[in-house]
């Protein structure tokens, strides 16, 4: 019988899988019944395979507020691989600034025209309507702690920004951050909703409220 070659899940594994899907359905149901806010952090769950780790609510709020102040009235903010800051900015529903999200994960396309597909391996492969030096501040959180990833993301940042840069990455990247973007480490310590093994820091190239 050909069916003999098809691997079968054990009853224990099958039960665990059914429980997982049931919990997922319940979570989705709760989101709908509670008038779910699509911009709240966690509305799109972390995908660790994409090296995604969302900021804590407090950190996302702090970085969003810093971006609004740095951008100024009517300012434009770009969030590069920093979706939780984008979500917090959208939660504010502010009319004094505009924001877009550059992200590899296409789940964020639910945010419509503000979503721009972005792959750091092709740092300048951007839409034609994304003009150079058109953002008052760029917030970026490169997905990997490698110089290659930082260097390529830096090309994107320098293309987009009018000058101000807010970089979030590991403390071990301090030297490379200064080398590629001319940014200095801040006193503010960003936190994630799940604790990371690597120490994380923020870096800026302007007088910020993060010191």
TrEMBL record:
Species for this entry: Leptosomus discolor (Madagascar cuckoo roller)
Annotated GO biological process: methylation
Cellular component, GO, one term: cytoplasm
Main location: cytoplasm
Keywords: Cytoplasm, Methyltransferase, Transferase
Name of this protein: N(6)-adenine-specific DNA methyltransferase 2
PANTHER family: EEF1A LYSINE METHYLTRANSFERASE 1
HAMAP family: Methyltr_EFM5
UniProt xrefs under InterPro entries: DNA_methylase_N6_adenine_CS (IPR002052), Efm5/EEF1AKMT1 (IPR019369), Mlase_EEF1AKMT1/ZCCHC4 (IPR041370), SAM-dependent_MTases_sf (IPR029063)
Keyword Endoplasmic reticulum part of the UniProt annotation: no
Claim: Methyltransferase is one of the keywords in the record: yes
Localization: Cytoplasm
One GO MF term attached to the UniProt entry: nucleic acid binding
PROSITE patterns assigned: N6_MTASE
Residues annotated as transmembrane: none
Reaction catalysed by this enzyme: L-lysyl-[protein] + 3 S-adenosyl-L-methionine = N(6),N(6),N(6)-trimethyl-L-lysyl-[protein] + 3 S-adenosyl-L-homocysteine + 3 H(+)
